Amino acid sequence: MAHLTVSVEYSVHSMLWLAGSGDSPLSSRDLAEFQGISHSFLAKIFPKLEKAGLVRASGGVRGGYLLARAPQDISVLQIVDAVEGKKPLFDCQEIRGRCAVFGNMPPAWATKGVCSIHAVMLRAEKAMRETLDSTTLHDLSNAVGGKAPPDFPAQVQGWLGSRIESRTGKPRSAAAPSSHQEVSS
Question: For the chain, what percent of residues have pLDDT higher than 70?
């Protein structure tokens, strides 16, 4: 988990909208336009989420993506790892043995055990991974959902429904999100 890129932000936001869509698939194009982000960039992220078993594709004209599991069964860490891979936060280069004073032969004390800097980075990574793993998509939805006014879910569904209708010529089913807490980000 090296430096977390914008891919993580795009992924988590998109997953939050999928959590609020219930059984109605959302296209990556609609999700990108809705959030004001690059469709081509977002379209490259969804196959990673699908491969990790976090989303599933739904084919057809009204197709798109759905969550593959319940929001409470998807951790933020799973999303991060799906998008970024399981890379370490810190890549220690062992420069502690390269001190000019040592010449070509660093003393044993200088390179004994785990590098102190690496050790603190390992602890930090462990704490971050534990926090991300203990936070589910459902938790995150609840945390950010309280910010929106009560009519916001209907506005979101109206916008998404108009996109589907313009693409298919048929109105979107009346499947509304279960609560405003699952559609706000």
Answer: 89
